Amino acid sequence: RSMSSVTIPPPPCMLRPLEAPLRYLFGPGPSNVPPRILTAGGRPIIGHLHPEMYEIMNDIKQGIQYAFQTENNMTIAMSGSGHAAMECAVFNTVEPGESVLVAINGIWGERVAEIAERMGANVHTMVKTPGGYFSNKEIEQAMEKYKPVLFFLTHGESSAGLCHPVDGIGDICRKHNCLFLVDTVASLGAAPIFMDKQNIDILYTGSQKALNAPPGTAPISFNDRACHKMFNRKTKPVQICLYHHTGPVSGFFALRESLAILAEKGLEESWRKHKEVAAYLYRGLEDLGLKLFIPERDLRLPSVTTIAIPEGYNWRELLAYIMKHHQMEMTGGLGPSIGMVMRIGLMGYNCEKTNADMALHALADALKNCKKSKA
Ligand code: PMP
Predict the structure, then answer these.
(1) How far is the CA of 215 from the centre of ligand 1 (A)?
(2) What is the mean pLDDT of residues 162-190?
(3) CATH number at residue 253
(4) 237 pLDDT above the threshold of 70
(5) By CB distance 3.0 to 4.6 Å, which of 1, 154, 201, 257 could disulfide with 183?
(6) Cβ(337) to ligand 1 under 6 A?
(7) 207 and 63 belong to one structural domain
(8) Looking at ligand 1, which residue's alpha carbon is closest to its atom 11?
(9) Are residues 124 and 77 both part of a single domain?
(10) For the chain, what is the domain count?
(11) 343 labeled part of a ligand binding site
(12) Do 295 and 230 fall within a single domain?
């Protein structure tokens, strides 16, 4: 056979049209993307170095500064998922051998601890079962003991449905010469966060939750303390994250539109709406006889609600029923919360009482039609 002949034929699947059904994305993300953002993402591509693109990147920077409530100059949208931002934060600020303290109360702290460990940091963890939270006193005691250069906390713990208090922790970190890194992938736009006022040194989020953009771009911001640590390191970072590359132009168009929607609506209104719809959902869930996983109302994450698995039911069966009969995604737990919770996310554009009603109706239908085992 000649070297130039094709031996692998076109795969039959490629000769069929793309199938991507319309689905209600009422899980912990991604959320549905509104037509306005889809349209922005569908605009003709321009070069990533064209002047218009610089302007768009600058708009995005300002949109993130508003969403994060920060004046940090080092504020960018990364090409990548929330995990990419998580890695970027740790890889760039921590050097091998340095001490890192991670608060674990669900899967996201576990992930950060693993990333930091793999890059050679000396990782110390504070661990609570999913839904648990840490007092400032506990955090300060651990900081005195381990003397970390970086402390990680998840603001919106989406695997547990917990919104962790942040006030005062930034000050404790400063006192102990430690950087404060906060994950707001699941909470940004849904629950208040004030990067500058709360003395958060590094903050990141994702595009696909309350911002309602497609997955793949991740806003991140570093303050002067974090930049100083990054630019004065003795060793080169394991991974260069802030480098020149061909950015995901369509993703940035969409992200710009999602930040514009947030700016038009206003942060306060977005936070208020998430809280209002979440409270409405809680009432409906309780009326169905379901128990909310986080007992303290003030600690519940307004974007992702966790329900204790109702006794006698198989959670996988309930979720499969809802997907099959209602074209609706709800999910189970993740990492340590698997088998403990079912999760409903109503984020950004999806955050409406009518959607809460649809989710409640689907759940009621599943509870009625899925077998309850006596086991
Ligand atoms: N942190 C939190 C709190 C999240 O909810 C998620 C996504 N579920 C991530 C990080 C990871 O983001 P991504 O899936 O975009 O990598």
Answers:
(1) 10
(2) 98
(3) 3.40.640.10
(4) yes
(5) 154
(6) no
(7) yes
(8) 82
(9) yes
(10) 2
(11) yes
(12) no
Ligand 1 pocket residue status of 110, Cβ below 6 Å: no
Mean pLDDT of 174-188: 98
Domain that holds residue 361: 24-29+266-369
186 is written with which tokens?
């699941």
- Residue range 297-314: mean pLDDT, rounded: 97
Give me the mean pLDDT over the 116-132 stretch. Answer: 97
| Ligand 1 and 87: CB distance under 6 A | no
ipTM associated with this complex: 0.98
Question: What pLDDT is stored for residue 371 in this prediction?
Answer: 82
The mean predicted confidence, pLDDT, of the chain is 96
CA–centroid distance, residue 112 to ligand 1 (Å)? 11
Q: What pLDDT digit, counting tens, does each position of 306-323 carry?
A: 999 999 999 999 999 999
pLDDT in tens, 349-372: 999 999 999 999 999 999 999 988
pLDDT tens column, 25-72: 999 999 999 999 999 999 999 998 899 999 999 999 999 999 999 999
Q: Please indicate, yes or no, whether residues 81 and 190 belong to a single structural domain of this protein.
A: yes
CB 252 near ligand 1, within 6 Å: no
- 3-state secondary structure labels for all residues of the chain: CCCCCCCCCCCHHHHCCCCCCCCEECCCCCCCCCHHHHHHHCCCCCCCCCHHHHHHHHHHHHHHHHHHCCCCCEEEEEECCHHHHHHHHHHHHCCCCCEEEEEECCHHHHHHHHHHHHCCCEEEEEECCCCCCCCHHHHHHHHHHHCCCEEEEECEECCCCEECCCCCHHHHHHHCCCEEEEECCCCCCCCCCCCCCCCCCEEECCCCCCCCCCCCEEEEEECHHHHHHHHCCCCCCCCCCCCCCCCCHHHHHHHHHHHHHHHHHCHHHHHHHHHHHHHHHHHHHHHCCCCECCCCHHHECCCEEEEECCCCCCHHHHHHHHHHHHCEECEECCHHHCCCEEEEECCHHHCCHHHHHHHHHHHHHHHHHCCCCCC
Last residue of a domain, one of 247, 265, 283: 265
The pair of structure tokens assigned to 163 is 């919104």
Distance, CA 241 to ligand 1 centroid (Å)? 18
**141 pLDDT tier (thresholds 50, 70, 90):** very high
Residue 242, pLDDT > 60, answer: no
